[in-house]
Amino acid sequence: MSELWPAPRPTDPVDRVVSLPGSKSLTNRALVLAAVADGPSVVRRPLRSRDTLLMAAALRSLGTRIEDTGGHGAGDWLVTPAPWDRDADVDCGLAGTVMRFVPPVVGLADGTVRFDGDPHMRLRPIGQMLTALETLGVRVDDGGRGALPFAVRGTGSVRGGTVTIDASASSQFVSALLLAGARYDDGVDVRHVGKPVPSLPHIEMTVAMLRQHGVEVDDGDANRWAVAPGPVRAVDHDIEPDLSNAAPFLALAAATGGRVTVTDWPAATTQPGDELREILTLMGCEVTLADGDLTVTGPPRLTGVDLDLHDVGELTPAVAALCALADSPSHLRGVAHIRGHETDRITALATELGRLGSDITEREDGLTIRPAPLHGGTFHTYADHRMAHAGVILGLAVDDVLVEDVATTSKTFPDFAAAWSRAVHGTPGDLGAPATTTAGTSP
Ligand SMILES: O=C(O)C1=C[C@@H](OP(=O)(O)O)[C@@H](O)[C@H](O)C1
Ligand SMILES: C=C(OP(=O)(O)O)C(=O)O
Protein backbone atom coordinates (compact mmCIF):
# COMPACT_ATOMS: atom_id res chain seq x y z
CA MET A 1 0.00 0.00 0.00
CA SER A 2 1.37 3.44 -0.91
CA GLU A 3 2.00 6.07 1.68
CA LEU A 4 -1.01 7.55 3.48
CA TRP A 5 -0.89 11.32 3.95
CA PRO A 6 -2.99 12.98 6.68
CA ALA A 7 -4.84 15.72 4.82
CA PRO A 8 -4.29 19.02 6.62
CA ARG A 9 -7.39 20.54 8.23
CA PRO A 10 -7.43 24.27 9.02
CA THR A 11 -8.60 25.39 12.45
CA ASP A 12 -10.04 28.70 11.21
CA PRO A 13 -11.35 30.04 7.91
CA VAL A 14 -8.29 30.69 5.75
CA ASP A 15 -7.21 33.98 4.15
CA ARG A 16 -4.52 33.31 1.56
CA VAL A 17 -2.90 34.47 -1.64
CA VAL A 18 -1.55 31.75 -3.93
CA SER A 19 0.43 31.73 -7.17
CA LEU A 20 0.05 28.56 -9.20
CA PRO A 21 2.38 26.68 -11.58
CA GLY A 22 1.74 26.85 -15.32
CA SER A 23 -0.92 25.06 -17.32
CA LYS A 24 -0.24 21.49 -18.43
CA SER A 25 -2.45 21.83 -21.49
CA LEU A 26 -0.85 25.10 -22.64
CA THR A 27 2.71 23.92 -21.93
CA ASN A 28 2.37 20.65 -23.86
CA ARG A 29 0.73 22.34 -26.85
CA ALA A 30 3.43 25.03 -26.83
CA LEU A 31 6.16 22.37 -26.82
CA VAL A 32 4.68 20.40 -29.73
CA LEU A 33 4.07 23.50 -31.83
CA ALA A 34 7.56 24.82 -31.09
CA ALA A 35 9.06 21.50 -32.15
CA VAL A 36 7.36 21.58 -35.58
CA ALA A 37 7.85 25.33 -36.10
CA ASP A 38 10.10 27.04 -38.63
CA GLY A 39 12.59 28.40 -36.07
CA PRO A 40 13.49 28.52 -32.36
CA SER A 41 11.00 29.80 -29.81
CA VAL A 42 10.73 30.29 -26.07
CA VAL A 43 8.14 28.75 -23.75
CA ARG A 44 8.02 31.12 -20.79
CA ARG A 45 7.03 29.96 -17.30
CA PRO A 46 6.32 26.39 -18.50
CA LEU A 47 4.85 23.87 -16.13
CA ARG A 48 7.55 21.48 -15.01
CA SER A 49 5.70 18.40 -13.87
CA ARG A 50 5.65 14.76 -14.88
CA ASP A 51 3.36 15.30 -17.90
CA THR A 52 5.36 18.18 -19.35
CA LEU A 53 8.75 16.63 -18.61
CA LEU A 54 7.58 13.51 -20.43
CA MET A 55 6.55 15.67 -23.38
CA ALA A 56 9.92 17.42 -23.39
CA ALA A 57 11.68 14.05 -23.16
CA ALA A 58 9.65 12.67 -26.08
CA LEU A 59 10.50 15.61 -28.33
CA ARG A 60 14.16 15.54 -27.27
CA SER A 61 14.37 11.83 -28.07
CA LEU A 62 13.36 12.70 -31.64
CA GLY A 63 16.09 15.33 -31.95
CA THR A 64 14.44 18.60 -30.84
CA ARG A 65 16.65 20.78 -28.58
CA ILE A 66 14.88 21.98 -25.42
CA GLU A 67 17.15 24.01 -23.16
CA ASP A 68 16.71 25.86 -19.88
CA THR A 69 17.30 29.57 -20.32
CA GLY A 70 17.33 30.55 -16.64
CA GLY A 71 14.49 33.03 -17.18
CA HIS A 72 11.63 33.28 -14.63
CA GLY A 73 13.02 31.36 -11.65
CA ALA A 74 13.01 27.69 -12.62
CA GLY A 75 13.83 28.66 -16.19
CA ASP A 76 12.05 29.18 -19.46
CA TRP A 77 12.52 26.65 -22.23
CA LEU A 78 14.25 27.52 -25.50
CA VAL A 79 12.97 25.08 -28.12
CA THR A 80 15.00 24.64 -31.29
CA PRO A 81 13.50 22.40 -33.98
CA ALA A 82 15.83 19.88 -35.63
CA PRO A 83 15.30 17.14 -38.19
CA TRP A 84 13.67 14.06 -36.72
CA ASP A 85 15.87 11.43 -38.33
CA ARG A 86 16.11 8.61 -35.82
CA ASP A 87 14.27 5.79 -34.08
CA ALA A 88 13.06 6.61 -30.58
CA ASP A 89 11.13 5.31 -27.58
CA VAL A 90 8.48 7.54 -26.03
CA ASP A 91 7.28 7.05 -22.46
CA CYS A 92 3.76 8.45 -22.22
CA GLY A 93 3.56 7.90 -18.45
CA LEU A 94 -0.11 8.58 -17.72
CA ALA A 95 -0.19 11.73 -19.87
CA GLY A 96 -3.03 11.79 -22.38
CA THR A 97 -1.40 14.76 -24.09
CA VAL A 98 1.80 12.79 -24.74
CA MET A 99 0.06 9.63 -25.96
CA ARG A 100 -2.29 11.62 -28.24
CA PHE A 101 -0.30 14.68 -29.36
CA VAL A 102 3.02 13.02 -30.24
CA PRO A 103 2.04 10.20 -32.70
CA PRO A 104 0.53 12.52 -35.35
CA VAL A 105 3.69 14.67 -35.48
CA VAL A 106 5.90 11.60 -35.39
CA GLY A 107 4.45 10.63 -38.77
CA LEU A 108 6.71 13.45 -40.02
CA ALA A 109 9.82 11.80 -38.58
CA ASP A 110 12.20 9.61 -40.50
CA GLY A 111 12.29 6.64 -38.18
CA THR A 112 10.32 4.24 -36.05
CA VAL A 113 9.00 5.59 -32.76
CA ARG A 114 7.69 3.18 -30.15
CA PHE A 115 5.16 4.35 -27.54
CA ASP A 116 4.32 2.86 -24.14
CA GLY A 117 3.39 4.16 -20.71
CA ASP A 118 2.15 3.38 -17.22
CA PRO A 119 0.05 0.21 -16.81
CA HIS A 120 -3.21 2.18 -16.76
CA MET A 121 -2.18 4.11 -19.86
CA ARG A 122 -2.59 0.91 -21.86
CA LEU A 123 -6.31 1.11 -21.02
CA ARG A 124 -6.89 4.75 -22.00
CA PRO A 125 -8.59 5.29 -25.39
CA ILE A 126 -6.45 5.87 -28.49
CA GLY A 127 -7.70 3.32 -31.08
CA GLN A 128 -9.93 5.70 -33.07
CA MET A 129 -7.06 8.14 -33.37
CA LEU A 130 -4.63 5.50 -34.61
CA THR A 131 -7.14 4.44 -37.25
CA ALA A 132 -7.54 8.10 -38.29
CA LEU A 133 -3.76 8.43 -38.59
CA GLU A 134 -3.64 5.41 -40.89
CA THR A 135 -6.33 7.00 -43.06
CA LEU A 136 -4.16 10.11 -43.29
CA GLY A 137 -1.18 8.07 -44.47
CA VAL A 138 0.71 7.39 -41.22
CA ARG A 139 1.88 3.80 -40.72
CA VAL A 140 0.97 2.51 -37.27
CA ASP A 141 1.77 -0.90 -35.76
CA ASP A 142 -0.43 -1.59 -32.76
CA GLY A 143 -0.85 -5.35 -33.12
CA GLY A 144 -4.57 -4.75 -33.67
CA ARG A 145 -4.96 -3.69 -30.04
CA GLY A 146 -5.99 -0.07 -30.64
CA ALA A 147 -4.03 0.75 -27.50
CA LEU A 148 -0.53 1.14 -26.13
CA PRO A 149 2.04 -0.18 -26.81
CA PHE A 150 2.26 0.79 -30.50
CA ALA A 151 4.81 2.07 -32.99
CA VAL A 152 4.60 4.81 -35.59
CA ARG A 153 6.80 4.25 -38.64
CA GLY A 154 7.49 7.76 -39.89
CA THR A 155 8.56 8.27 -43.49
CA GLY A 156 9.45 11.96 -43.32
CA SER A 157 6.12 13.21 -44.69
CA VAL A 158 2.38 12.61 -44.30
CA ARG A 159 -0.22 12.99 -47.04
CA GLY A 160 -3.04 14.19 -44.75
CA GLY A 161 -6.46 15.17 -46.09
CA THR A 162 -9.97 14.46 -44.87
CA VAL A 163 -10.66 12.06 -42.02
CA THR A 164 -13.76 11.06 -40.08
CA ILE A 165 -13.31 10.13 -36.44
CA ASP A 166 -15.46 9.39 -33.40
CA ALA A 167 -13.85 11.68 -30.84
CA SER A 168 -16.50 11.21 -28.14
CA ALA A 169 -13.94 9.42 -25.95
CA SER A 170 -11.53 12.36 -25.90
CA SER A 171 -11.20 15.83 -27.39
CA GLN A 172 -7.47 15.13 -27.50
CA PHE A 173 -7.95 13.00 -30.65
CA VAL A 174 -9.05 16.12 -32.51
CA SER A 175 -6.45 18.42 -30.93
CA ALA A 176 -3.71 15.95 -31.79
CA LEU A 177 -4.61 15.77 -35.50
CA LEU A 178 -4.93 19.56 -35.71
CA LEU A 179 -1.57 20.20 -34.02
CA ALA A 180 0.21 18.17 -36.72
CA GLY A 181 -2.08 18.98 -39.66
CA ALA A 182 -0.38 22.11 -41.03
CA ARG A 183 2.76 20.07 -41.67
CA TYR A 184 0.89 17.39 -43.64
CA ASP A 185 1.08 17.75 -47.44
CA ASP A 186 -2.67 18.35 -47.80
CA GLY A 187 -3.31 19.73 -44.32
CA VAL A 188 -6.06 17.98 -42.39
CA ASP A 189 -9.84 18.17 -42.40
CA VAL A 190 -11.21 16.43 -39.31
CA ARG A 191 -14.90 15.52 -39.10
CA HIS A 192 -16.38 14.12 -35.91
CA VAL A 193 -19.23 11.61 -35.94
CA GLY A 194 -20.74 10.05 -32.84
CA LYS A 195 -21.80 11.25 -29.41
CA PRO A 196 -20.78 14.86 -28.62
CA VAL A 197 -17.07 15.60 -28.31
CA PRO A 198 -16.17 16.41 -24.68
CA SER A 199 -13.89 19.19 -23.48
CA LEU A 200 -14.55 21.54 -26.42
CA PRO A 201 -12.66 24.42 -24.73
CA HIS A 202 -9.53 22.30 -25.10
CA ILE A 203 -10.09 22.11 -28.88
CA GLU A 204 -10.64 25.88 -28.89
CA MET A 205 -7.31 26.17 -27.06
CA THR A 206 -5.64 24.14 -29.82
CA VAL A 207 -7.22 26.26 -32.57
CA ALA A 208 -6.26 29.51 -30.82
CA MET A 209 -2.64 28.42 -30.42
CA LEU A 210 -2.40 27.23 -34.03
CA ARG A 211 -3.62 30.64 -35.17
CA GLN A 212 -0.99 32.31 -32.98
CA HIS A 213 1.53 30.28 -34.99
CA GLY A 214 0.13 31.65 -38.25
CA VAL A 215 -1.71 28.45 -39.14
CA GLU A 216 -5.02 28.80 -40.99
CA VAL A 217 -7.82 26.90 -39.23
CA ASP A 218 -11.46 26.72 -40.32
CA ASP A 219 -13.68 25.84 -37.35
CA GLY A 220 -16.81 27.52 -38.68
CA ASP A 221 -18.94 24.35 -38.74
CA ALA A 222 -19.85 22.22 -35.74
CA ASN A 223 -17.86 18.98 -35.50
CA ARG A 224 -15.46 19.94 -38.28
CA TRP A 225 -12.00 21.48 -38.09
CA ALA A 226 -9.83 22.08 -41.16
CA VAL A 227 -6.15 23.03 -40.98
CA ALA A 228 -4.55 24.38 -44.16
CA PRO A 229 -1.10 23.06 -45.08
CA GLY A 230 1.74 25.48 -44.48
CA PRO A 231 4.54 26.47 -42.16
CA VAL A 232 4.11 26.73 -38.40
CA ARG A 233 5.65 30.08 -37.49
CA ALA A 234 7.94 30.13 -34.44
CA VAL A 235 6.18 32.04 -31.63
CA ASP A 236 7.14 32.59 -27.99
CA HIS A 237 4.45 31.61 -25.47
CA ASP A 238 3.77 32.92 -21.97
CA ILE A 239 2.15 30.04 -20.14
CA GLU A 240 -0.84 30.97 -17.96
CA PRO A 241 -1.24 29.44 -14.49
CA ASP A 242 -3.09 26.11 -14.54
CA LEU A 243 -6.67 27.08 -13.78
CA SER A 244 -7.85 23.48 -13.34
CA ASN A 245 -5.21 23.06 -10.66
CA ALA A 246 -6.65 26.19 -9.03
CA ALA A 247 -9.67 24.04 -8.12
CA PRO A 248 -8.40 22.66 -4.79
CA PHE A 249 -7.03 26.06 -3.76
CA LEU A 250 -10.31 27.83 -4.50
CA ALA A 251 -12.10 24.96 -2.78
CA LEU A 252 -10.02 25.82 0.29
CA ALA A 253 -11.95 29.10 0.50
CA ALA A 254 -15.25 27.47 -0.44
CA ALA A 255 -15.02 24.66 2.12
CA THR A 256 -13.77 26.74 5.06
CA GLY A 257 -15.87 29.90 4.60
CA GLY A 258 -12.54 31.64 4.10
CA ARG A 259 -10.94 33.67 1.34
CA VAL A 260 -8.36 32.66 -1.27
CA THR A 261 -6.90 34.83 -4.00
CA VAL A 262 -5.20 33.23 -7.00
CA THR A 263 -2.83 35.64 -8.73
CA ASP A 264 -2.29 36.08 -12.48
CA TRP A 265 -5.77 34.83 -13.40
CA PRO A 266 -6.08 35.62 -17.13
CA ALA A 267 -8.77 38.11 -18.18
CA ALA A 268 -9.52 35.93 -21.21
CA THR A 269 -8.53 32.30 -21.59
CA THR A 270 -9.40 29.05 -23.33
CA GLN A 271 -8.66 27.07 -20.16
CA PRO A 272 -11.75 25.23 -18.91
CA GLY A 273 -10.72 25.96 -15.32
CA ASP A 274 -12.07 29.47 -15.84
CA GLU A 275 -15.49 27.83 -15.46
CA LEU A 276 -14.72 27.50 -11.73
CA ARG A 277 -15.82 31.11 -11.34
CA GLU A 278 -19.35 30.16 -12.42
CA ILE A 279 -19.43 26.85 -10.55
CA LEU A 280 -18.29 28.32 -7.24
CA THR A 281 -20.76 31.19 -7.57
CA LEU A 282 -23.56 28.64 -8.01
CA MET A 283 -22.34 26.87 -4.86
CA GLY A 284 -22.78 30.09 -2.89
CA CYS A 285 -19.28 31.59 -3.03
CA GLU A 286 -18.55 35.22 -3.72
CA VAL A 287 -16.20 35.39 -6.71
CA THR A 288 -14.43 38.51 -7.95
CA LEU A 289 -11.85 38.97 -10.68
CA ALA A 290 -9.99 42.27 -10.53
CA ASP A 291 -6.57 43.28 -11.86
CA GLY A 292 -5.58 39.67 -12.50
CA ASP A 293 -6.51 38.48 -9.00
CA LEU A 294 -9.31 35.96 -8.64
CA THR A 295 -10.72 36.01 -5.13
CA VAL A 296 -13.17 33.45 -3.81
CA THR A 297 -14.90 33.89 -0.47
CA GLY A 298 -16.69 30.83 0.85
CA PRO A 299 -20.24 30.88 2.23
CA PRO A 300 -21.21 29.60 5.71
CA ARG A 301 -22.77 26.55 3.97
CA LEU A 302 -22.19 25.33 0.43
CA THR A 303 -25.19 24.82 -1.86
CA GLY A 304 -25.49 21.70 -4.04
CA VAL A 305 -25.51 22.15 -7.82
CA ASP A 306 -27.00 20.56 -10.92
CA LEU A 307 -24.26 20.80 -13.54
CA ASP A 308 -23.41 19.44 -16.97
CA LEU A 309 -19.61 19.19 -16.84
CA HIS A 310 -19.20 17.78 -20.37
CA ASP A 311 -17.01 20.69 -21.46
CA VAL A 312 -14.97 20.79 -18.28
CA GLY A 313 -14.78 17.14 -17.24
CA GLU A 314 -11.36 17.47 -15.62
CA LEU A 315 -12.98 19.64 -12.91
CA THR A 316 -15.29 16.80 -11.82
CA PRO A 317 -13.21 15.33 -8.95
CA ALA A 318 -12.77 18.67 -7.17
CA VAL A 319 -16.38 19.71 -7.77
CA ALA A 320 -17.67 16.32 -6.56
CA ALA A 321 -15.66 16.66 -3.34
CA LEU A 322 -17.16 20.09 -2.73
CA CYS A 323 -20.63 18.73 -3.47
CA ALA A 324 -20.08 16.10 -0.77
CA LEU A 325 -19.65 19.00 1.67
CA ALA A 326 -22.78 20.87 0.50
CA ASP A 327 -26.04 20.96 2.41
CA SER A 328 -28.30 20.18 -0.56
CA PRO A 329 -28.15 17.51 -3.30
CA SER A 330 -26.00 17.78 -6.44
CA HIS A 331 -26.24 16.19 -9.86
CA LEU A 332 -23.07 16.13 -11.96
CA ARG A 333 -23.86 15.11 -15.53
CA GLY A 334 -22.39 14.71 -19.02
CA VAL A 335 -19.04 13.21 -18.03
CA ALA A 336 -19.19 9.58 -19.17
CA HIS A 337 -15.85 10.20 -20.91
CA ILE A 338 -14.00 10.71 -17.61
CA ARG A 339 -14.25 6.96 -17.11
CA GLY A 340 -11.34 6.96 -19.60
CA HIS A 341 -9.22 9.48 -17.70
CA GLU A 342 -6.33 8.63 -15.34
CA THR A 343 -8.74 6.19 -13.73
CA ASP A 344 -12.48 5.60 -14.11
CA ARG A 345 -13.19 8.80 -12.22
CA ILE A 346 -16.93 8.22 -11.83
CA THR A 347 -16.47 4.86 -10.13
CA ALA A 348 -13.43 6.08 -8.18
CA LEU A 349 -15.28 9.12 -6.82
CA ALA A 350 -18.38 7.09 -5.94
CA THR A 351 -16.21 4.53 -4.14
CA GLU A 352 -13.94 6.90 -2.24
CA LEU A 353 -16.46 9.60 -1.32
CA GLY A 354 -18.88 6.83 -0.39
CA ARG A 355 -16.24 5.17 1.80
CA LEU A 356 -16.03 8.35 3.89
CA GLY A 357 -19.80 8.50 4.38
CA SER A 358 -21.02 10.45 1.36
CA ASP A 359 -24.48 9.52 0.08
CA ILE A 360 -23.38 9.19 -3.54
CA THR A 361 -24.86 7.35 -6.53
CA GLU A 362 -22.90 6.48 -9.61
CA ARG A 363 -24.66 6.94 -12.95
CA GLU A 364 -23.35 6.10 -16.42
CA ASP A 365 -22.59 9.75 -17.15
CA GLY A 366 -22.10 11.24 -13.71
CA LEU A 367 -22.83 11.30 -10.01
CA THR A 368 -25.66 12.23 -7.65
CA ILE A 369 -24.48 13.39 -4.25
CA ARG A 370 -26.78 14.03 -1.27
CA PRO A 371 -25.86 15.60 2.09
CA ALA A 372 -24.67 13.06 4.65
CA PRO A 373 -22.38 13.10 7.70
CA LEU A 374 -18.80 12.34 6.66
CA HIS A 375 -16.06 10.63 8.63
CA GLY A 376 -12.31 10.05 8.34
CA GLY A 377 -10.62 7.13 6.64
CA THR A 378 -8.38 6.28 3.73
CA PHE A 379 -9.03 8.01 0.41
CA HIS A 380 -7.56 5.93 -2.43
CA THR A 381 -6.29 7.88 -5.44
CA TYR A 382 -5.70 5.28 -8.21
CA ALA A 383 -2.60 7.13 -9.51
CA ASP A 384 -4.92 10.04 -10.36
CA HIS A 385 -3.73 13.53 -9.42
CA ARG A 386 -7.27 14.89 -9.40
CA MET A 387 -8.47 12.12 -7.07
CA ALA A 388 -5.79 13.34 -4.65
CA HIS A 389 -7.23 16.85 -5.01
CA ALA A 390 -10.68 15.49 -4.14
CA GLY A 391 -9.23 13.76 -1.07
CA VAL A 392 -7.52 16.84 0.31
CA ILE A 393 -10.65 18.94 -0.26
CA LEU A 394 -12.64 16.48 1.84
CA GLY A 395 -9.93 16.65 4.47
CA LEU A 396 -10.57 20.39 4.86
CA ALA A 397 -13.87 19.67 6.57
CA VAL A 398 -13.47 16.13 7.90
CA ASP A 399 -11.01 14.94 10.56
CA ASP A 400 -8.55 12.14 9.86
CA VAL A 401 -8.74 11.85 6.08
CA LEU A 402 -5.70 9.89 4.89
CA VAL A 403 -4.88 10.50 1.23
CA GLU A 404 -3.14 7.57 -0.43
CA ASP A 405 -0.16 8.39 -2.66
CA VAL A 406 -0.49 12.17 -2.63
CA ALA A 407 2.73 12.20 -4.69
CA THR A 408 0.62 11.24 -7.70
CA THR A 409 -0.16 14.98 -7.95
CA SER A 410 3.30 15.40 -9.52
CA LYS A 411 1.58 14.60 -12.83
CA THR A 412 0.65 18.25 -13.16
CA PHE A 413 1.81 20.00 -9.98
CA PRO A 414 5.35 19.95 -8.54
CA ASP A 415 5.46 19.56 -4.74
CA PHE A 416 1.69 19.72 -4.34
CA ALA A 417 1.64 18.35 -0.79
CA ALA A 418 4.04 21.02 0.47
CA ALA A 419 2.17 23.75 -1.39
CA TRP A 420 -1.13 22.49 -0.04
CA SER A 421 0.14 22.38 3.57
CA ARG A 422 1.38 25.93 3.23
CA ALA A 423 -1.94 27.04 1.78
CA VAL A 424 -3.96 25.35 4.53
CA HIS A 425 -1.78 26.35 7.46
CA GLY A 426 -0.69 29.74 6.16
CA THR A 427 3.04 29.34 6.50
CA PRO A 428 4.68 31.94 4.27
CA GLY A 429 6.13 30.44 1.15
CA ASP A 430 5.90 30.63 -2.56
CA LEU A 431 2.42 29.19 -2.44
CA GLY A 432 -0.20 29.84 0.16
CA ALA A 433 1.26 32.97 1.66
CA PRO A 434 -0.95 34.65 4.27
CA ALA A 435 -2.97 37.42 2.66
CA THR A 436 -0.90 40.08 4.39
CA THR A 437 2.29 39.03 2.58
CA THR A 438 3.16 39.10 -1.07
CA ALA A 439 2.64 35.87 -2.96
CA GLY A 440 5.82 34.38 -4.34
CA THR A 441 6.63 33.22 -7.79
CA SER A 442 5.42 30.01 -9.34
CA PRO A 443 7.73 27.05 -8.95
O1 LIG B 1 -6.22 18.71 -24.52
C1 LIG B 1 -5.99 18.76 -23.30
O2 LIG B 1 -5.02 19.39 -22.83
C2 LIG B 1 -6.94 18.12 -22.39
C3 LIG B 1 -8.19 17.74 -22.83
C4 LIG B 1 -9.17 17.07 -21.97
O3 LIG B 1 -9.16 15.69 -22.31
P1 LIG B 1 -10.49 14.84 -22.65
O4 LIG B 1 -11.14 15.45 -23.82
O5 LIG B 1 -9.95 13.47 -22.89
O6 LIG B 1 -11.36 14.94 -21.42
C5 LIG B 1 -8.85 17.24 -20.50
O7 LIG B 1 -9.68 16.44 -19.71
C6 LIG B 1 -7.39 16.93 -20.23
O8 LIG B 1 -7.08 17.09 -18.88
C7 LIG B 1 -6.52 17.90 -21.00
C1 LIG C 1 -7.65 13.97 -17.98
C2 LIG C 1 -6.50 14.55 -17.57
O1 LIG C 1 -5.26 14.36 -18.10
P1 LIG C 1 -4.70 13.82 -19.49
O2 LIG C 1 -4.04 15.00 -20.13
O3 LIG C 1 -3.74 12.77 -19.09
O4 LIG C 1 -5.86 13.31 -20.28
C3 LIG C 1 -6.49 15.48 -16.42
O5 LIG C 1 -5.44 16.10 -16.18
O6 LIG C 1 -7.51 15.61 -15.72
From TrEMBL:
PANTHER family associated with the record: AROM/DEHYDROQUINATE SYNTHASE, PENTAFUNCTIONAL AROM POLYPEPTIDE
Assembly behavior: Monomer.
CDD domains for this protein: EPSP_synthase (cd01556)
Localization per record: Cytoplasm
EC numbers on record: 2.5.1.19
Reaction equations catalysed: 3-phosphoshikimate + phosphoenolpyruvate = 5-O-(1-carboxyvinyl)-3-phosphoshikimate + phosphate
Positions that bind phosphoenolpyruvate: 24, 96, 124, 172, 345, 386, 411
Function of the molecule: Catalyzes the transfer of the enolpyruvyl moiety of phosphoenolpyruvate (PEP) to the 5-hydroxyl of shikimate-3-phosphate (S3P) to produce enolpyruvyl shikimate-3-phosphate and inorganic phosphate.
Family to which this protein belongs: Belongs to the EPSP synthase family.
Active site (record annotation): 314 (proton acceptor)
Domain of life the protein comes from: Bacteria
EC class (word): transferase
Pathway: Metabolic intermediate biosynthesis; chorismate biosynthesis; chorismate from D-erythrose 4-phosphate and phosphoenolpyruvate: step 6/7
Keywords: Amino-acid biosynthesis, Aromatic amino acid biosynthesis, Cytoplasm, Transferase
Listed name of the protein: 3-phosphoshikimate 1-carboxyvinyltransferase
UniProt source species: Nocardioides pini
GO molecular function: 3-phosphoshikimate 1-carboxyvinyltransferase activity
Domain Enolpyruvate transferase: 10-417
InterPro entries: Enolpyruvate_Tfrase_dom (IPR001986), Enolpyruvate_Tfrase_sf (IPR036968), EPSP_synthase (IPR006264), EPSP_synthase_CS (IPR023193), RNA3'P_cycl/enolpyr_Trfase_a/b (IPR013792)
Chain sites annotated for binding 3-phosphoshikimate: 24-25, 29, 170-172, 199, 314, 341
Gene3D superfamilies xref list: Enolpyruvate transferase domain
